[in-house]
């Protein structure tokens, strides 16, 4: 029994190292592209952990570590890191007309707006975060 526990411990340690390595590669790749700014969401991880369907997946993603690495790597490379407020409706806001769809469920992966905009929910959020970051930069320059 002890051998199996030791093997399980080694495998868990290896899996943790793979996850950390992946985060380093992803964040380094983003910064290498030399964007003028990086905008990420301030996610309510505690709230997501309360959802029993999401908690294990959320726990394994390492959102805090991703944010921490993005912040320090962007600082090293003189790239402005912008953190969007956790209440910013990035996936519920139409990137075309600006209307907010309040009843959007997490299971709905395609965003459909009354204006005719049909787009993947994650791409929608990315476009809205880009615009949010641009707006923050404009306000800081003005």
UniProtKB/TrEMBL annotation:
Annotated source species: Anaerostipes hadrus
Q: Say if the entry is tagged with keyword DNA-binding.
A: yes
Q: What is this protein called?
A: Transposase, IS605 OrfB family
Q: Tell me, what is one Gene Ontology molecular-function annotation carried by this entry?
A: DNA binding
Q: Which Pfam families match?
A: Cas12f1-like_TNB
Q: Which UniProt keywords apply?
A: DNA-binding
Q: Which residues form the Cas12f1-like TNB domain?
A: 63-129
């Amino acid at each position: 029994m002890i051998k199996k526990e030791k093997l399980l411990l080694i495998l868990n340690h290896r899996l943790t190292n793979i996850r950390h390595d992946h985060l380093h590669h992803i964040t380094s790749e983003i910064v290498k592209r030399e964007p003028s700014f990086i905008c990420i969401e301030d996610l309510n991880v505690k709230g997501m952990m309360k959802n029993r369907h999401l908690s294990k997946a959320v726990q394994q993603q390492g959102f805090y570590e991703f944010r921490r690495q993005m912040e320090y790597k962007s600082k090293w490379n003189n790239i402005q890191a912008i953190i969007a407020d956790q209440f910013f409706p990035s996936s519920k806001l139409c990137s075309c007309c600006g209307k907010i769809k309040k009843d959007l469920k997490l299971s709905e992966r395609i965003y459909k707006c009354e204006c005719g905009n049909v787009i993947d929910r994650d791409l929608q959020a990315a476009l809205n975060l880009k615009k949010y970051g641009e707006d923050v930069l404009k306000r800081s320059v003005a």
